[in-house]
Amino acid sequence: MKIGFALPQFNRQAFGIAQTATFASAIEEAGGASLWVGDRNLAAVSPVVGYGGQGNTIPEELNAAADPFVLLGVAAAVTSRVLLGTHVLVAPLYPPVQLARSLTTIDLISGGRLLPGFGIGWSPEEYQAAGLDFTRRGARMEELLDALHAIWTTDPARYEGAQISVPEHHSPLKPARQPRPPFYLGAMSERALGRVARRGDGWLPLVSVPSWVDIDGLVTQRALLDELAQKAGRDPGAIDAVLRVNIDAGTSVTRVAGTVKEIGERTGIDHFMIDSMYEVHTVEGSIEHARQLLQLVGKG
User: Which PANTHER family does this UniProt record tie to the protein (predicted)?
Assistant: First the structure.
């Protein structure tokens, strides 16, 4: 079982980002398998759509958000073994050339340890701030994946789609991971799972402990993903999964460890990303929390 942890990025932990290097080194030394960032370009004061596409509120813990690319770059520079993932970047918000450049840089610094995870997001205000059409975000994601593939695998590189246009340009700097870094995609709905089945190298589901842990739902989603992958002519076994585990405030480390073990046993998922931002407010506390969890669950 592989256990990874979110870098100090959100909520009160964001105010300790000067300790990112210390956190990353400590997690690797303790036996963590991976380090992760999420993405929040802004948290609207009066959102049209609420957190996760539900209601009309966003948790105040997401108001403070540090830059995911900078944090991963710092982590890449001070570690040598752990994987470095994004769970998830709201990828359609970014111009493909700039996104490819940032991720290529991180992958090269880390020696090919990048696991880029993408999602389409749920916040209309984030798309408004980027000057993009929220209603076409799914189609933009499809084109973005094509554009990234072109930039990462060809030189000169170009891409022309309905929403994204990348002029032919010199593209000699490639990621260390060949032929390109894998595409991990967040998905819950059948439509999104279909995109994972067709395009993804990995699937990024999530739970919150203890408020939202639907193990039967995870099993059902994985079965649907496998079915859709077979229909698309792909081997379902080639599609990896990393489960994000958000820890609700007031939840014991013992309960988190027990939930992770149960999910692993029932679903076959063997890689977990733990985010303690709701429960632990300091970087020092987050390091100790991670060490305790690794002792209870075991090191990957």
Answer: ALKANESULFONATE MONOOXYGENASE (PTHR42847), ALKANESULFONATE MONOOXYGENASE-RELATED (PTHR42847:SF4)
Contact 14, 84 (CB under 8 A): no
The string over 2-19, giving b where at least 16 C-beta atoms fall within 10 Å of a residue's C-beta and e elsewhere, is bbbbbbbbbbebbebbeb
Helix ranges (H only) for 111-177 are 124-129, 137-153
| Number of CB atoms found within 10 A of residue 104's CB | 22
Q: What is the pTM of this model?
A: 0.97
Give the Cα separation of 144 and 149 in Å (integer): 8
Q: Which CATH class is domain 201-300?
A: alpha beta
Rg, C-alpha atoms of the chain: 18
Closest CA to 187 of 172, 168, 169, 200: 200
Residue 114 identity (one-letter amino acid): L
Contact 289, 276 (CB under 8 A): yes
Q: 10-182 and 201-300 share one CATH topology?
A: no
Quickly list DSSP for 215-251: HHHHHHHHHHHHHHHHHTT--GGG-EE-EEEEEPTT-
Of 246, 245, 205, the closest CA to residue 59 belongs to: 246
Q: Which CATH architecture has domain 10-182?
A: Alpha-Beta Barrel (3.20)
Q: In what order do the strands lie in the sheet with 240-241?
A: 89-90, 117-119, 184-186, 202-204, 240-241
Query: H or E segment at 34?
Result: strand 34-37
In the chain, what are the domain boundaries? 10-182, 201-300
Cβ proximity of 206 and 272 under 8 Å:
no
